[in-house]
Amino acid sequence: MNEANADVEQEPMNPETTFVELAKIADNYLRPIGLGQELVETLFEEDWDWAFTVQLDALLETAAREAIRNTLILKLPNGATAKVSELGSLVDRMSYQGAVSLFSLLVDSGLSSDRKKFISSVRQIRNQFAHDIRNRGRTLFEMIEDSNNSDNLLRSLGKIEQGANLVPFKELLKENSDLFRMTMLEQAMSFLYWLHFNYTKE
Fold first, then answer.
1. Are 140 and 104 in contact (CB under 8 A)?
2. What is the CB neighbour count within 10 angstroms for residue 119?
């Protein structure tokens, strides 16, 4: 962390208002992928952080894949166009992240830096949970603390501004897993709303 910014203060986040408002309209942006508002409640109430993280990552990928499937247009040699939804296997074969991927298409179409960092951070923690069953009983905070880029992960997943003093946030999130989940769900719902508005708006 930059020492010049180490003492910058930021009030501990309160995502509750945004979380509630996004949850109220969750059916609008979850319906296109066959889900509904109850998924948000189910994820928030998960018993284990590993299950919460794996499912949240799956939700982000499913929504992104479906959005691309429904809107990407291919220009054919004869001048005609074909929707990728008619060539669904192409989208199914595309990797989620990487140089040439669904994620790169989203970035090229205007995905913000903050959302990009959040999605990448969720995938990193998901992989740490999924690739070692011994992590099953560990908390999100413990997984983040053990990562080489723990400060960056905490800022991204906890929605903490660059330069803000992390000490009070670490104390808050370590003791309040519900707040951590709410913050992550709020960011996930914001991303899903962005997808709905930009890709699946009826």
1. no
2. 24
Helix and strand numbers, DSSP H then E, in the chain:
11, 2
Q: What is the pTM of this model?
A: 0.81
DSSP 199: T
Q: pLDDT per residue over 125-147, tens digit each?
A: 999 999 999 999 999 999 999 99
Conformation bin of residue 94: beta by default, left when phi > 0, alpha when psi is -120 to 50: beta
Nearest CA to 54 out of 146, 122, 145 is that of: 122
CB atoms inside a 10 Å sphere around CB 47:
7
Q: Output the six-digit token pair for 165.
A: 């003093």
Strand partners, 83: 73
SS3 164: strand
Q: What is the pLDDT of residues 102-116, one digit of tens each?
A: 778 888 878 899 999
